[in-house]
Predict the structure.
Amino acid sequence: MPRATLWLATPHASAVMAALSPEVGREIPRTRVRLTKVKEGIVLEVEASDLGALRAALNSYLRWMEVSEEIGKMVGE
């Protein structure tokens, strides 16, 4: 099974976690996602049944993380 682990160092970890938590709980076909808050930021772990599903999940989560990070900067979280 293909898998990817990404670490996002951010001072806006709480805002990003709050924004992405509903998505982590949602079922995505052929993938399992885990999001963990660590002292320095966030760790995203994605495991998929095939590379296409892994790519799709990573694209979605990376985009959501980027938007959440930008919103955190704007509101001062």
About this structure: The domain at 3-75 is CATH 3.30.310.50 (TATA-Binding Protein).
